[in-house]
Amino acid sequence: MDLEAILKENFGYDTFRPGQKELIEKVLAGQKAMGIMPTGGGKSICYQLPAVIFDGLTLVVSPLISLMKDQVDSLNEVGIPATFLNSTVEWHDREERMRYIESGAVKLLFVAPEKIVDEEFYSWLSALNISLVAIDEAHVLSSWGHDFRDSYLKMIKPLKQLPGKPAWLALTATATQQVQNDLADILDIPAENIVKTGFDRNNLTLKIERGIDKPAFILNYVKSHIDESGIIYAGRREDVDNIYSFLQKNGVKVGRYHAGLSDKERHQQQEDFLFDRINVIVATNAFGMGINKTNVRYVLHFTVPGTIESYYQEVGRAGRDGLPAEAILLYAPVDLRLHQFFIDKSQGDEQYKLSLKNKLFEISRYAETETCLMKFILDYFGETGTSDCGRCSNCLDNREIVDVTADAQKALSCIVRMKQRYGKKVITRVLVGKDDMANDWRHFEELPTFGIFNDKTLKETSRLIDFLTANGFLRSSGGKYPILLLSAKGKEVVQGKLNVTRRKEAMSVKAVKPMVADGSFDVDLFEKLRALRLEFARKQALPPFMIFSDKTLKDMSVRLPTDEKEFLAVSGVGKVKLEQYGTDFINEIKEFQKVSQNS
């Protein structure tokens, strides 16, 4: 079976991305497999292509109800019959779809996990010829995942009891080794059937901005990227509303999205963003899980997310088309306190709260580190031994590096003299020599290191402790009341065997406009093709990227196809796309060339 030919004919791609073919072959062999790929890494092809080949139905279980319609529309657009059944479908429409599915005319059915545990629906489902069960966002099955969902676990037993023994495919973009082990156990997936492609996104530039005027930075950045699509994430609804109003007042066409808006307004804002009526949207993390927009060029975080998993999934919404994109975290330590407050107030048990606190500690380390940002994330997901990316703000930071060994030794020695029994707040106040610590019953004032930083502020001292923690000289004990302990590196510093260097004062890293394409292409032709794409999108009530991605249009602008064979060679153009749009786009290219030659 020529899988590459099937890939090109149905999806328009000449070659598979890493891991895709291996997973597809396991699925076609009727096995249980799991794919761990970064956001934008092409997970959906791993079940969509087998669905084309299988005689029976492919059942896709996903918690992302808002994404299902986009996925179905995209599949139908390339001639692959698909539909979805979830709470948004009215009963009369649902009955019609169910009859259509029973006829065997549908290749893929998307459902939410809650549908599987509905006895009536499951009874109907059991009578169908199901060849493949694909479980998307599989990390939520794990109690160690960052978004635990009870209905996901409850559906596993009935899915295992489906007749016909369909193949299984679990997919996730954010899974630590602990989560991977948990999923393999729950889903009975053998170790040799776990395909992990790596989390590196080499088209994505990670940046951190510290100590800046956040609203001013956002306005300047958005205006300098005014023709590009971007998402601005904020932690609170109030922040979303304030940034939205601020940008509006400064002439930016902007949308907003959070749970405090009506369903109608949220839907309209999302549609405006998907259909390119607005280029930028400000949102809480409620937005984006259902967004498959491929041409998002930047993601800005106004506040730091609570976990590295959430952060990397959110920044992964930039550059899904493979073209260069940026993700910038606007960091202030105070942001972490909001997360701490929500963790303390959450309804989860102590183990769940502890898990969240440990994850918050890791994202705080990321925000303070001076090492390569991409390498830090890859290390977190278990990809040790990777090299620096050479493109993040830390790799490109040219600030002067100064020796801070003396201050580091003072801080670390103080922690040792405090018998490594305390957390950051107490340690910082002892180092600065605050009165409440001098009068404390534990007699900290008797320590030779008490007040050793009396010439520094609490903020400066706290940042030093954060730096030492983020860069591996200190480690946290975890637990409900985490304490700071010296690592092996920290002990070497105290013993005088290792020096500590740090970049000088923090300064804002200038936002650089990302390259829009690899290689040269005609920008004027690209804009004409974008306009033609928009015409088709409006006629068919589809988001423009479902017609052709920006990457495909740029490839057209480079290749300049003037016949069907050349047009079919464009990345992202398959047989159905050629039949639907080939003539119009070829004519547009020919007309552009004619005008250019005569001018």
From TrEMBL:
Domain of life: Bacteria
Keyword field: ATP-binding, DNA damage, DNA recombination, DNA repair, DNA-binding, Helicase, Hydrolase, Isomerase, Metal-binding, Nucleotide-binding, Zinc
Keyword ATP-binding tagged: yes
Name of a matching Pfam family: RQC
GO aspect biological process, one term: DNA repair
EC number of this enzyme: 5.6.2.4
Catalytic activity annotation: Couples ATP hydrolysis with the unwinding of duplex DNA by translocating in the 3'-5' direction
InterPro entries: DEAD/DEAH_box_helicase_dom, DNA_helicase_ATP-dep_RecQ, DNA_helicase_ATP-dep_RecQ_bac, Helicase_ATP-bd, Helicase_C-like, HRDC-like_sf, HRDC_dom, HRDC_dom_sf
Protein's UniProt keywords contain DNA repair: yes
Protein name from the UniProt record: DNA helicase RecQ
Cofactor: Mg(2+); Zn(2+)
Record-annotated Helicase C-terminal domain positions: 213-362
Gene Ontology MF term list: 3'-5' DNA helicase activity; ATP binding; DNA binding; four-way junction helicase activity; hydrolase activity; metal ion binding
